[in-house]
Amino acid sequence: MSRRSVFNWAHWGLGSVTEVMAVAAMFLGMSQSSLPLPQPWVTSVLIGYVAWLASFRILFLIHKHLPTRTRRNT
Fold first, then answer.
1. Rounded CA separation 4/2 (Å)
2. Which domain of life is it from (predicted)?
């Protein structure tokens, strides 16, 4: 296994863990009393944001694995 592939996996893993921790911190921060947020909307907006992020991740994974066609100049 090359050092580049180890770096790629480590970079992907740390980035994913960091993203999960950031979303958890946002959900935990909603209940802070020093942050006056409109309660009925906060959870819905944050769930929408997380769904938007997840849909783009899935879209990019699908795009990555689609077969590519090479163009020939004729």
1. 5
2. Eukaryota
Determine what percent of the chain is predicted with pLDDT higher than 70. 89
Q: Is residue 12 part of a domain?
A: yes
* Tally of domains in the chain: 1
Residue 16 lies in a domain: yes
pLDDT value at position 27? 84
Residue 72 lies in a domain: no
Among candidate residues 44, 53, 48, the one with its CA nearest the CA of residue 20: 53
